[in-house]
Structures are given as C-alpha cells and as structure tokens.
Design brief:
CATH topology of the largest domain: Aspartate Aminotransferase, domain 2
CATH architecture of the largest domain: 3-Layer(aba) Sandwich
Structural class: alpha/beta
Largest sheet: 7 strands, mixed
Distance between the termini: 45 Å
Length: 354
C-alpha cells in the first residue's frame, strides 16, 4: 500500500473473488455463473439500448423496477436496483449499521459480509453454523443487531425454511433482517411476499445467476417503502447512475422471458442432483445444496488437492481455506457435457490418489 492510504483501512482484508485466469481456456466451475447465455430477448433489448449510450442512464431505473415489481406482484415503491447484489448488500450495511448498531451473520457464509463490516467499522458477530453446516436460527432471535442470512447459504447451498425467516423478522422488530437470495431460484423459496408483512425485512436478489446476467451487474432490493427510501438516499449520494442503460434493458428483456429462465433453472437442478449422485458413488459426501453449485468432500482427497489437480487439467473449482470447510470443494453446476468432463477428471485424480 502507498503511504497515502487511509489508516482507517490498515487491517482491511479485501474480498477475494473467484479466479478469472487468462493464461489458458478453463472449464470454469468456480464462480457460480450460468452455463447458458442470457435470454435472446435480453440480448436484443441490450443491443437496442446501445444506440443511446451517449446519454446517461435513467437514474430512477423505472423500466426495470416496473418489471421487477410486476414479476413479484408488488408495488414499485418497494423495489430499488443496484449494481449487482453486492452493491445492495453494501448499501444495507451502510444504511442500517454503524459503530453503535452491529450486525450478525453465520461464520460460514458469503465472504463479503465481514469485509463490509470491517470497512464500515461495524461491530459484528459470526454465529457458528451447526456441525452439518446448516444455519441454526435460534441465536439470531431477540438480538441487538441487524441479521444477514444468505438463503440458500453460500458456499453450502443449504436453506432455512420460511417459518424461520418469519420468526427472525417477528422477534427482531427493532432491527433489520436481510435475506440474501442470490441463489433462491434453483430450489429455495423466496421471502419476497413476507416483506409486505414485516416492515423490517429486506430481500436482496440478483439477475447474475439464474438469469445469466453476471456480466451485466444487476441486483435488486425489495422492502418496505421507508427502507427503500433509505437506500435511495445512499444511492443518490453515491452514484445515481449506478445501473447502465444496456443492463437495465437486458434486465427487462430477461424478465419478459421467464420460461427461458425456468427451463435453465430446471436443467441446472437436474444436473446438480445427477452430479451429487455420481460423486456419491465415487466416495464423496455433500450438503443438500439447493443452489447452482454443490459442496463436496472426499475422505481420501483433501479439498486443496482436488482444486490443484483439477486446475492442472483445465477445470476450476472453488476451494476455501477456512478450517471448518477446508476439506470441501464448491463446484458450479454446468451443462451435462461439462459435468461429464468434470467427472472424468475426478475419476483420473482418484485413481492417482488411492
């Protein structure tokens, strides 16, 4: 770091995104991207919007907010959009937490949560997940902090039921409860409808995963209009043009083609279950992931070794060094052909290891 870097960030450890290497062509199963291209309607609308890139994007993002409101059957004043769901999470930490208002989240979850807390100087508690890596809702009840839960959780893919989310919102009326639904379309159940009953409940979503717009960077937040007003204050004080014109158009296009999304999600879910069963027969165990990835381990193959040996064969998966999950590998679900290539490589590696 330079000598000019603010001392506020002396101890900040930045989030480490999944590898995006350029040295060769890899089968990328490490960043939970969709194996399918965006809907043709999304591509067409984005191309049409490209002709107007000399003008600023609409700061109100009206068209995509209308499309999201229509999709979820809620009023538009309950929706705002962000530059990916990561920006929405950052706004949530900024709006409802500070030195006197802490936050709590699981110890095994999305790595950006502690980074945001550290960057914003927010006190935080990391609640241990159970031995089976599932989230126990009980410690989050009647607390004195904002609650952030990814559902399905990452990197485990495990879900918590709707009644648990209701309990979190109901028993923490003086604090915000944020449900991060980045992966909900692959087998989870959305809590969006609950936001109309609980004014402290916020749902954050993204079009990156199930709708194949990871490169477009389009997230959204759904909550009581008063909470959306909080976020809009921050958004307009940070970057009112945070979502570009082509992304807005692509988002509208993909929401117009829900059948395309449903087909892709169903295919990924089928491939996920098939891969879990195939790897089980090879000696792997896994969590009951309801996401577009699986979380697996093998008694004879440490997670770091599997990661390195797959990478040497041109396949990227995600390995985490956190002690509780160091033996696991997170593998993004791709097409059937991609999963066949992965399994063939794993079989070779297992022959070498035993």
């Amino acid at each position: 770091m330079s000598r000019y870097f603010s001392h506020r960030y002396d101890r900040l450890e930045p989030y480490v995104p999944g590898e995006q290497p350029q040295d060769r062509k890899y089968l990328k199963l490490n960043t939970n991207e969709s194996p399918f291209p965006p809907s043709p309607k999304a591509i067409q609308r984005a191309a049409e919007a490209a002709g107007g890139l000399n003008l600023y994007s609409d700061p109100t993002c009206r068209k995509i907010r209308e499309a999201l409101a229509d999709h979820y059957g809620i009023p538009m004043d309950r929706v705002t959009v962000t530059n990916g769901s990561d920006e929405g999470l950052y706004f949530a930490f900024s709006a409802w937490c500070d030195e006197a208002h802490p936050v709590m989240f699981p110890d095994i979850t999305y790595g950006f949560y502690p980074v945001y807390a550290e960057k914003l100087n927010i006190p935080y508690r990391q609640i241990p997940v159970r031995d089976d890596l599932s989230i126990d809702p009980e410690p989050y009840l009647h607390n004195e902090a904002m609650v952030v839960i990814a559902n399905p959780n990452a990197p485990t893919g495990l879900t918590i039921p709707q009644n648990a989310i209701e309990a979190l919102a109901e028993r923490n009326p003086d604090h915000i409860v944020v449900i991060d639904e980045a992966y909900v379309d692959f087998g989870g159940e959305s809590a969006v409808k609950l936001t109309c009953r609980y004014p402290n409940l916020v749902v954050i979503g993204t079009l990156s995963k199930s709708r194949s717009l990871a490169g477009g960077r389009l997230g959204y937040m759904i909550a009581d209009p008063s909470l959306i007003a909080d976020i809009e204050t921050l958004r307009y004080s940070t970057n009112p043009y945070n979502v570009n014109s082509m992304t807005i158009a692509a988002g509208v296009g993909v929401l117009e083609d829900e059948a395309y999304t449903r087909r892709n999600c169903a295919c990924i879910a089928d491939n996920r279950e098939a891969l879990k069963e195939t790897l089980r027969k090879l000696g792997f165990s896994s969590t009951d992931s309801k996401s577009n990835f699986i979380f697996v381990k093998h008694p004879a193959l440490p997670g770091a070794m599997l990661y390195e040996k797959l990478k040497a064969r041109g396949i990227l998966v995600r390995h985490f060094k956190t002690p509780r999950i160091a033996d696991y590998s997170r593998i993004t679900i791709g097409t059937a052909a991609q999963m066949e290539a992965l399994v063939a490589a794993v079989q070779e590696i297992l022959k070498e290891a035993v």
